[in-house]
Structures are given as structure tokens and as C-alpha cells.
Amino acid sequence: MERRQQHRHTGRTVIAVGILLGLGAGATGCSDSRAAADDVKGGGDPVALLRRAADTLGGAGSSKATTSMEMATGGTRVTIRGKGVYDYRHRLGRLTVVLPEDPTGTAEHQPITELLAPGALFMKNRGAGVPADKWVRVDTATVSDGNLVTGGATDPYAAAEVLRGARTAAYVGRAEVGGTPVRHYRGTADLAAAAGRASAADRAPLAAAAKGFATAEVPFDVYLDDQGRIRKLRQRFSFVNGLQKTPVAVASTTLLYDFGVPADVRLPRPRDIYAGRIAEDGH
Q: For the whole prediction, is pTM greater than 0.70?
């Protein structure tokens, strides 16, 4: 019984820390991709290569994406998963995010539809008293994590922008992701440095994350294909749960594949955005 209560408590913590956290408050051409590929093949400077990984994604146009966010606190661990598409040229994405099941194996919440846009996160099926046909809008520059963990999924392009703050990076070796040959790099990025080099849309959110996390240092593992495109990116964040004052370790993993697929993402109309009060307890 005690173990069941612990898991149920953890489920509530994830929603409070991840989803509710946010409620409190230019593309380059193929020449950049070729340059990145040359660096990969020639064993160039890993730091310089990773700092322009976001630009390489811009040149790739679009892709499918899956996300996984593991949160560990109080000796328990839960995972939030997402899946969708992303348009890197227009910085727009759509994900379906699935929250963890309750201890009996029954989903406590319907999947959440999330739309990612420059400076904003839109969520539908949010719960917390929000009508099912309405969207909740979060200004990502006003949340303490810069939307790196707020929605239970890290914006794929924002994750790549974090690499602009790479301080150290080393080539680990050849590997394979989803059947695609890749090169594995491991290093550490600094959020404040990333904010200083980021695109205008991500500058303020990353600066907020640099101040809001327990540390601005972000260890990462990244896997690039021979065109220099990110195929897999795992980043580790650390922050203090503002509600319970307990440390939370977050591991965010993003997989990118099927580059060039159609990614038609349309943002909600103003009348479809909820303007009422949102319950703080998630019910």
C-alpha cells in the first residue's frame, strides 16, 4: 500500500513539476549542412560542430520527432513520452504527449496535444478545469525552465539551441540510431552561453532556464548523421521543485527521423485560447 501511494504521489509531482510549472507564471542553406558533414568526416572541432547543429536542422526543413522525459525525485522515476512533427524553418511543432499511468495501469489523463512556437507553448486536453475544446497558452520566456521541461517534452529546436552553449565536447565513436549510421559526441553545455548565441526566439527562454535551474550546466550525448543532422540528443537538467522544495533530475531524450516529411502546424485562433483560471492542483 505504501508503494502504491508513493507512485501515485510521484504522478502528481510530475504534473506539478513539469506541466504546471509553465502555468505559474532564421534557416540556413545546404552549404552549412555540407560544412557540418565535412567536419564530421574529417574529425573537426566537436565544439564548433555542435554549436551549429541548430543551423543544420534549419537547413533540413522538417522531421518527425519522438521525445522522452524521465524525472527522478524522492527515489522514484517516471517517464513522459511524446511524438509528432517539427518544421525547423518556421519553428513550429506538434506533439502528442502521454503522461504516466497510475499505479493500477490506468491512464489518469488523456494525451495532451502540444503546439510549439517561437516564444509560446499551446496545450489542449490540459485538464485542471480547462474546457476540452480550449487551448492553454504559456509564454516560454516567463517560465523558470524556459520550456525545456514545462510541457513534459523539450522543444526539438530549443534542445539543439542548447548545444550553441557547448563548452566541452569529445568524439566517442561510431554508432547507429534507428538504422542510420551516426557519430556519437559527449560533452557539457552552458545555458547562459547558449542564450547569448541563440536565435531571437530562444534567447529569453534559455536565459530564464540558466537562472531557474539548479545549475546552468547541461551534460549531453548527441548523435549526428553524416549530414551533421541531430538524430538523437539526450540532455540532463537539474532543478528544485518549487512546490515541494525537492531536487528533481530530468533526462530529456529527443529522436529525429524522416527528414523532409510534411509538417503543417497551425496555431490556435485567439478565440480558442482559454483565458480563465487554471486549477493549481491539476484537478
A: yes
